[in-house]
Amino acid sequence: LNLVTTKLIPDPSTQLPSIPPRPIKQSTNMKLLAAALSLITASSAVAKDDDAFRPVRIRYEDVISSSTDTNTLASMMDALSDVGMVSITGFPSSFQEDRNRFQTSLGACMGRSEAARVHTFDDGTKRTTLASHTVPGPGGIQKIAHGDSYAATAEEPCASFDEAAKPFRARVDLVTRAFAARVADAITEQSPGGSLLATEDGYTFDTFHDVIDNGEHLEHFHEYERESTDVPLKAGDAQEETVEWHTDQGLLLAFTPGARVGKDGKVDQGSDDGFLIRLADGTAKVVQFDANDELVIMLGDGVDQIVNPTLKETVKEGGQQRRLRAVPHELTVAASDTSSRVWYGRMVLPPAQAVHPSHGKTFGHLRNLLIENMEDEDSEVHALGCSGTSHARQLEEAQCEPGSEYCWHRCMYHADHGVSVESCAAEGLDVRCINPRYQLYDNSHGDWQPQHSH
Question: What is the pTM of this model?
Answer without folding.
Answer: 0.76
